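Field log, afternoon session.

UNIT: design team B
ACTIVITY: writing a sequence onto a fixed backbone
BACKBONE:
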């Protein structure tokens, strides 16, 4: 079982925090897209919108 990772809020002013948030998102991207696809198939419009926004 993999460890859960929480996506971080993107900080507009702190570059180090911004880099950490982008690194975490990039590392989670491969899992996030298929998960959003699965959720969207169950008529969840918000999941479909999130998937469309990141792909």
């Amino acid at each position: 079982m993999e460890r859960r990772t929480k996506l971080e809020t993107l900080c507009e002013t702190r570059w180090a925090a911004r880099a950490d948030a982008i690194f975490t998102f990039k590392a989670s991207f491969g899992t996030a897209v298929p998960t959003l696809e699965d959720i969207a198939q169950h008529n969840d419009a918000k999941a479909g919108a999130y998937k469309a926004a990141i792909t």
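LOG NOTE: Helices lie at 15-40, 45-54.
NEXT ACTIVITY: expression trials, pending approval
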